[in-house]
Amino acid sequence: SRPVVDYSVVGREPDSSFSESEPSRLEEGTDQYLYDTSGLWRRAADMDIGGTDQSSEMSIGLPDTDYCSEVLSSGEIVGLSQAMEKLELKSNSESELNPDAFGFVISTFFRIAMFLSNLSKANLPKLSASSILSASRAFSASALSRSSNETVGFVGLGNMGAHMARNLLKKTEKNLIVYDINSAATSNFSSNLPVSSDRVKVASSLADLASSSKVIITMLPESAHVKSAYSSDTGLLKGLKADTICIDSSTIDTSVSVEISSIIEKRGSIPFDAPVSGGVMGAEAGTLTFMVGSRSQEEFESAKQILQHMGKNIVYCGKLGSGQTVKICNNMLLGCSMLASAEAMNLGVKLGVDPKLLASIINTSSGRCWSTQISNPYPNVVPNAPSNNDYNGGFGTKLMLKDLDLSINAAKATNSPVVLTSVASQIYRAAANRSDLANKDFSSILKFISNQ
After folding, report:
1. Summary mean pLDDT of the chain
2. What H or E segment, with its residue span, contains residue 282?
3. Rounded mean pLDDT of 129-152?
4. Residue range 269-276: mean pLDDT, rounded
5. pLDDT grade, residue 450 (50/70/90)?
6. 111, 131, 165, 144: which is closest to 49 by C-alpha?
7. I want to staple 407 with a disulfide (CB 3.0 to 4.6 A). Which of 66, 332, 348, 417 is the partner?
8. Which three-class secondary structure state does DSSP give residue 116?
9. Quick one: which of 314, 306, 324, 259 has its CA closest to 282?
10. Does 327 qualify as catalytic in the annotation?
11. Disordered: where is this region (predicted)?
12. Which entry of 174, 214, 327, 398 is annotated as an active-site residue?
């Protein structure tokens, strides 16, 4: 039987619009009542799920009663997470998904709560605004990742981006709309597609790309390029729609990344910083490591559903900006290790040791690292390394310098000593000033230190 309503708890009886048969709507400036697990009706504000300061963000509509009854009949719904799981299954099976499902989910849960209030075994958890918001974000974000034919916008078709975009085409059924400020890069990409050209469109502008995309991935060289891509007169923000997943895989300053994410959030979209490691070879093979910063673990899962088609290791690093922090620390170490590897290989060869023998011993000993084993700077040691292709097609020397500068700036801000990195940056800076090395793979630092 229905519990007795103790109106003394709420301070006054509900007004005439209130019905004990269903939850009342949350409306700004009014005392609204919702059923609590203790068997009492309480004001929404007292339950920390509404009130005048939050109700403008919550518009609770009442869903289909028959469907709620159908869900209820299973006897499995005991809380918000299970209710949402059922609703996700329904949306998935019928392919009638509204990504902006916040009000629908919450109102459905309280409708189910009303039915369950008549059951003696009802055991509903008390909810807070933060738990509802977190759950709704998870629902909305996971919902966005389900559609197999959604359009993905890809910005930046350079050495890395072009391979990443091709892997998306090869490994999914998604359509792509692409943009690069360099028309030659766009033409090259369009003429070397692994699938039918019907699935690829070249955007006339970044705003055009944004207005056509459910997911946007940016892969650009520097902080200024990312800021411009979003904020220019014809930038992404001009066409950005609410609930768009925005993934930035550029390696940029952490503070700039957080700034861009904040702008995206204010537009009602979902930001991620997801820089990569693995180089051009990893991008082509689809084995990149993505270091992801996001607002929550739940939202990270939605990005992972996309990134897994371009990489092998998709790692949740924490809050927004964390992915960029991990990346600059990794590249700081990589720049130093490549320089040390080049010095070791150069010294050994000058002392008369065969470079392949030297590398093979290093790679079975304690000096082994990525720079000696995967991308050895000495030519004719590792077959697929850039050094075997006149240092073409890899990660440019000037880009490595940029990343070292990012790490040094972060070190200054946190008063962290980076002595080796500071020395390495000066050597890369001198190499980047040579026109024949600036755009070559950074392993070409061997040519610089050996006076070639």
Report:
1. 78
2. helix 279-285
3. 53
4. 97
5. very high
6. 131
7. 332
8. helix
9. 314
10. yes
11. 1-28
12. 327
Cα atoms in the 13 Å half-sphere on the side-chain side of 258: 9
β-partners of residue 364 are: none
Tell me the H-state helices in 117-249: 129-144, 161-171, 183-190, 206-211, 223-231
CA distance 320 to 63: 34
Count the Cβ atoms, other than its own, within 10 Å of residue 417.
Answer: 8
Look at 7-11, 134-138, 162-166, 324-328 and tell me which has the smallest mean pLDDT.
Answer: 7-11
pTM over 0.70: no
DSSP state of 428: H
Burial 161-194 (b: 16+ CB within 10 A, else e): bbbbbbbbbeebebbbbbbbeeeebbeebeeebe
Q: Which two tokens stand for residue 275?
A: 């820089």
Our CA angle for 171, 204, 305, nearest 5°, is: 25
Tell which residue, 444, 452, 451, 409, has the closest CA to residue 339: 444
pLDDT in tens, 26-57: 333 444 444 333 333 344 444 333 333 333 33
Q: Which residues contact 325 (CB under 8 A, 6 or more apart)?
A: 254, 293, 317, 410
pLDDT of residue 149: 66
Q: Coil, strand or helix: which one is 293?
A: strand
- Residues 131 and 229: their CA atoms lie apart, in Å, by 34
Q: What angle do CA 360, 363, 368 make, to 5 degrees?
A: 150
> Which of 288, 399, 289 has its CA nearest to residue 338?
399
2 pLDDT more than 60: no
What are the C-alpha distances in Å from 390 to residues 209, 314, 436? 36, 31, 11
Calpha distance 246→244 (Å, rounded): 6
| Residue 29 CB coordination number (10 Å) | 7
Over the stretch 162-196, which tens digit does the pLDDT of each residue have?
Answer: 999 999 999 999 999 999 999 999 999 999 898 88
Q: By CB neighbour count within 10 A (0-12 exposed, 13-18 middle, 19+ buried), where does 411 fall?
A: middle
Task: Tell me what pLDDT residue 150 has.
Answer: 83
CA neighbor of 327 nearest in space, from 182, 446, 223, 171:
223
Q: Which of 331, 349, 397, 341 is nearest to 372 (CA)?
A: 341
Contacts of 6 (CB under 8 A, 6+ apart): 40
Domains of the chain, earliest start first: 7-144 (no CATH), 151-320 (3.40.50.720), 327-449 (1.10.1040.10)
